[in-house]
Amino acid sequence: MLKNDIFERLTTLLDTNNARYRVMEHATGGRSEEVAKIRGTQLGQGAKGLICHVKGNGYRQYVLAVLPADQQADLAILAKQIGGSRASLASPKEVSELTRCVFGAIPPFSFHPELKLVADPLLFERYEELAFNAGSLERSIILHTADYRRIAMPELITFRKRSD
Is the pTM of this model over 0.90? Predict the structure, then answer.
């Protein structure tokens, strides 16, 4: 596997863009709830990144879909919003190739030209700071939400499951 330089790329990008953030080293957490407790953050502050493969209607695209950790993604809605007819989660091999990270450690930034970045608007509506694993299960970054939006510039697409 390639050397994981994602943390260095992230901090360089954030520093270059004068982002307000802090780094936290911590024990590996399993589920999002556990990681939020370890970080001392709310579950909804977690920026959960899913690597999806959207296909159909002549469309083929890998997508890094980011949403709050207390929400679930609706992959059918995601596919339709982007222009495909179906979406599935990428395989661990594809995730590794596209992000140089393991499942659970994917930051909400795309450093791969074939990986389109989208975010659910709810990510920007509730908290002043977002928290995410920074290329490692033992390291997180807590970043001002406005700085994330300004630097990453994700396409905004509502794709979370609705409870109504």
Answer: yes
